[in-house]
Write a structure and sequence with these properties.
Shape: globular
Organism: Streptomyces wadayamensis
Structural class: alpha+beta
Protein name: DUF1697 domain-containing protein
Number of domains: 2
Strand content: 15-25%
Order of helices and strands: EHEEHEHEEEHEH
Radius of gyration: 16 Å
């Protein structure tokens, strides 16, 4: 008997400003057509949870990205992460998440871990009180005035090397909810 692992697929840049439209019902159908089970979505911004017996998140991401390109005719960056990783991101948060509003805390998920040298061109003091901390294939971003007013978000995203992409960010509510959804039986 083959056991299935629960994963979250994080799609970058869909359904933003009317561009790269991927209806969530169609995303669930696409995941099912790819042979994944229990496909569910969260919000309209490209978060899906599914099960698969395959144990290679990178191969799963490539398969989903290829299927999206074939169906919709545009490229979508896709990252796939399992529950253990998503929970580790929650647990390792270097900021006091319980004391912050969810709109003040974000995680940029990446394909690989960035090094301090990768981000050495950013002077954190120049963006105070905003701040960032690298993590395991993620960067935590604290924006006291929200992401929409952030002076750090764009420079931080530009500083992340292409090899670490695709980068896709989620607010703290979504970070926590995806960890919860991938834990559900």
């Amino acid at each position: 008997m083959t056991t299935s692992q629960r994963y979250a697929a994080l799609l970058r840049g869909i359904n933003v400003g009317g561009h790269k439209k991927v209806p969530m019902a169609e995303l669930r159908t696409l995941l099912t057509e790819l042979g994944h089970g229990d496909a569910r979505t969260y919000l309209q911004s490209g978060n899906a949870v599914f099960t698969s017996p395959r144990a290679d998140p990178d191969a799963l991401a490539t398969g989903i990205a290829d299927a999206l390109r074939d169906r919709y005719g545009f490229e979508v960056g896709v990252l796939v992460r399992d529950h253990a990783y998503l929970q580790a991101v929650v647990d390792a948060c270097p900021f006091p998440a319980a004391d912050l509003e969810p709109k003040q805390l974000h995680v940029l998920y990446l394909s690989r871990t960035v090094t301090p040298a990768d981000l050495s061109g950013l002077d954190p003091a120049a963006f105070h009180p905003e701040d960032f901390r690298p993590g395991d294939r993620a960067v935590y971003l604290h924006t006291p005035n929200g992401l929409g007013r952030s002076r750090l978000s764009d420079p931080l995203t530009r500083a992340i090397p292409k090899a670490a992409g695709p980068a896709t960010s989620r607010n703290w509510n979504t970070v926590v909810r995806l960890a919860e959804m991938t834990a559900e039986e």
